[in-house]
Specification:
Layout: E1 6-10, H1 20-31, E2 40-42, H2 57-82, E3 85-94, E4 97-105, E5 111-115, H3 125-128, E6 136-140, E7 143-149, H4 156-159, E8 168-172, H5 180-194, E9 197-201, E10 204-206, E11 212-214, E12 218-220, E13 229-233, E14 236-246, H6 248-257
Parallel strand pairs: 1-2, 2-3, 7-8, 8-9
Antiparallel strand pairs: 1-14, 3-4, 4-5, 6-7, 9-12, 10-11, 13-14
Helix pairs in contact: 1-2
């Protein structure tokens, strides 16, 4: 049986740093406008708070404690209300440790987590957060999906699609405009080398350190072609949706006709 097509939407939302209520309200209002046949919405890294580097560890712990439960409960409510999965990341505190935690929320209330593997050392993320050891993997509506976070994109070994274990790779990011050229090149590269669809979403806005984000986001097919269609949000000039329908039949056909995955190098990650 051929798995049905999957309708994906990227939302490169405008983040208001340090204002969880404003960000959750933005998400609520925007999802009311999403196409009703959408299966999955992917939103930026740390969407509800903004990327918090620049604060002390104690400040970020307080931020996480005050926002985590509210964020997760809102995501579950919205996923159920709109019958869509939602993927992104959230700041999470557990004991004395902090995590940049990727999530995949399903309409039935199930939620899968994994923590960001590669912490952005140039901004000191590794001094605040604890790195994860597992890549998020989920099977949703017949599709195998993997997810990585922002800086992870620069490390192809972590993204490697061994024996076609995933059909779609999601990347949730806060990738600043000053380095956006690398983001725009690496996304197609990951699609080509892994023979999979790639969905990469960035945010818009300006963070507390003065870095600007232009929302560069793409849905890319297994050949490296950008296939997303952009739809502006009527009531938000700086925000938009990017839609694409992913075809499992076309993906399977290409993998059969061009089975480069069979010649990939064998390795293990420690």
């Amino acid at each position: 049986m051929i798995t049905k097509d999957l309708n994906v939407c990227l939302f490169p939302m405008s983040i208001t740093w340090d204002d969880v209520n404003a960000n959750l309200e933005n998400l609520k209002k925007s999802l009311n406008l999403v196409h009703p046949q959408t299966d999955l919405v992917v939103i930026p890294e740390t969407f509800s708070t903004g990327f918090p580097i620049g604060k002390s560890k104690d400040e970020i712990k307080t931020l996480a404690a005050n926002t985590y439960t509210q964020t997760i409960e809102t995501l579950k409510e919205l996923s159920n209300k709109h019958n869509i999965a939602i993927a992104g990341t959230v700041v999470c505190a557990h004991g004395d440790k902090l995590f940049n935690r990727a999530f995949f929320v399903e309409p039935n209330g199930d939620i899968t987590f994994a923590d960001k593997r590669h912490l952005f050392t140039m901004a000191g993320e590794d001094k605040i957060f604890t790195a994860g050891n597992n890549r998020l993997k989920i099977r949703y509506r017949g599709w195998n999906i993997a997810m990585i976070v922002c800086y992870d994109l620069r490390f192809p070994v972590w993204s490697r699609n061994i024996n076609n274990e995933y059909d779609i790779l999601l990347i949730s990011a806060n990738w600043p405009e000053v380095r956006i050229s690398a983001w725009n090149k690496l996304l197609p590269a990951r699609a080509i080398e892994n023979l999979s669809y790639v969905c990469g979403v960035d945010c818009t806005g300006t963070d507390n350190n003065g870095f600007s984000y232009d929302g560069s986001s793409m849905i890319i097919d297994y050949k490296g072609n950008e296939i997303g269609k952009t739809v502006p949000l009527a009531d938000a000039a700086d925000q938009r949706f990017i839609y694409a329908t992913l075809s499992r039949a076309k993906l399977d056909s290409f993998r059969e006709k061009f089975p480069a995955w069979r010649d990939s190098d064998k390795f293990s990650i420690h």
